[in-house]
Specification:
single chain; mainly alpha; 90% helix; hydrogen ion transport; membrane; ATP synthesis; ATP synthase subunit b
Amino acid sequence: MPAFLNPAEAEFWVGAGLLIFLGIVFFGAKAHKAIAAALDAKAASIQANLDEAARIRDEARRLLEGLQAERAEAERQAKEMLATAEVQVRQFEAEAKAKLEEAIERRRRMAEQKIATAEAQAAAEVKAAAAELAAQMAESVLAQRLTGAKADPLVDRAIGQLASKLQ
């Protein structure tokens, strides 16, 4: 058996090492290219993911800014609406107060008119009662004076007219 095929000989191991080395170089070069290509593909995938993440982050930032702007606008509008409502409440209060004062004044005037009317009516009734009483007293005084004497028809007629005029 030749020496390079005998595993007990050093030449065998040198040949085996050379074949392994050449196999590694030959297949390693291809493997290196494949590994490099796989690493490049993985790097490209990672870069694409990073780019996508950056794009999503920018989009999220823009959305956040938009939402913050909308929120600020909504808060401004809410404050404006609240201020407007407060002004309207004050106006309604003032109007209600004015209407209440007007109603109170109108009722006061109506009460004064009723009181004045009642006073005038009472005064008229008192005057009528006083006139009737005066007429009755005058009639009784005249009747007492003329008792026994002949009654004058003119006096009787004047007394009758006096009673009708006083009423």
